[in-house]
Amino acid sequence: MSKKMSAGRGKAGRLSLGAAVALVASAGMAVAADAPRTKRKMMPPPPVVEAPVETKLVDFAFGLRAASDYNFRGISQSDRGFSPQGYGELQLFDNFVYAGVAGYGVDLPTKPLAEIDLTAGIRPKLGPLTFDFGVIGYVYPDETQFIVDDVILTPRDTDFLEVAGKVSYTYMDSLTLGAGVFHTGDFLGSGANATYFNATAKYVIPDTILPAGFAISGEIGRYALGRVDAYLGGFELIDYTYWNAGVSYTWNNFTLDLRYHDTDLSKDECFINTTDPKGVFTGSGRSKWCSEAFVATLSVDLVASQLGIFAPAR
Asked: Which domains, and CATH codes, for the chain?
């Protein structure tokens, strides 16, 4: 009997010990459940390092063109013939301020050596909008006044100055819309007021449709012209509408542009505005310089900073 009692006490002891362990464990779990949870500290995000903004304090754009005809606002300036062309433009403060010069091969009634355009202005930017406010000086060196049978047909000097204001809007780097106003009080030295209004559009064709580099573009404009000086006849020049449309392909720095030009001027009206020598010497009083024309232009355009000449400041 003493053995049974001892065995019973041993078993009860073992049970009591197990119950105690269980009780301690459950108490510990309860305490842990009641204890406030420690929040995991979130690491701050790494600081965003912005790329340094590159500012091109000085740059220079330049290029050459070979055109089958120099068509200026719908009127041929090269008697429907070939016109070599070139330009250079100094650009300061990310192209905010600019000054440039351009040369064109011409065949005009006063027979100048060339047309030289001198330009200067500013190009402020506001989001997708780019403005251009400037002046253009049209210079025709070494002119000879066009006089036939003692009749003065052109000014002695056809140089003139024009003020210009333009704006362009770019959407998704593919569509660019523009508008401009150009005014002079002495058109081709004739004393006539002249204001040209235009609207332009250019669309870069996605490379899912055509190979990269293709674009279509066009322009429509209206030229409002005034009365020439009395010594030239004192007559009114003819207002007219001009438009063009074309397609271009750009590969690297080369661009081939194929473009159709036309105006609503008749051949008689064109002669009044141009004094085309052919209309004088044939006695027809007519000119084809304002008629429909198809012009092909091959150009190469370069920027000094892209060639490593001007390193952008950071």
From this structure: 58-303 (2.40.160.40)
